[in-house]
Amino acid sequence: VQLVESGGGLVQAGGSLRLSCRVSGVSFSTYAIGWFRQAPGREPEGVSCMTLDDNSKYYTDSVEGRFTISSDNAKNTVHLQMNNLQPEDTGVYFCAALYWGLCKEGPWRFRGQGTQVTVSA
User: Model confidence over 40-80: pLDDT tens digits?
Assistant: First the structure.
């Protein structure tokens, strides 16, 4: 099993980033793919999540309307488009395979290493 993130970086407030998670070895009929973020000194927070078989989606309240999760099933890749980024969005973002009902807080079954997102004021 592998989950590999890409697309993090440094952006000014109001800017955009697109994260990608390439997934291999995971059954999409069993697991949803979620994005979590962890700010320094804080627990990981579920940001967004989706099922690739029926396209159900979850967003935490703070990103609703700004972030969009999508998938390219042919490439086994899940994207997170992040618009109007704010300093409070800063953190390490990682993707994870987990049961749909656990998208808000986890736990996850498998996770990637993560990618840093830094939003300057």
Answer: 999 999 999 999 989 999 999 999 999 999 999 889 999 99
**CA-closest candidate to residue 34, choices 6, 9, 58, 64:** 58
3-state secondary structure the chain: CEEEEECCEEEECCCCEEEEEEEECCCCCCCEEEEEEECCCCCCEEEEEECCCCCCEEECHHHCCCEEEEEEHHHCEEEEEECCCCHHHCEEEEEEEECHHHCCCCCCCEECCCEEEEEEC
CA distance 96 to 115: 13
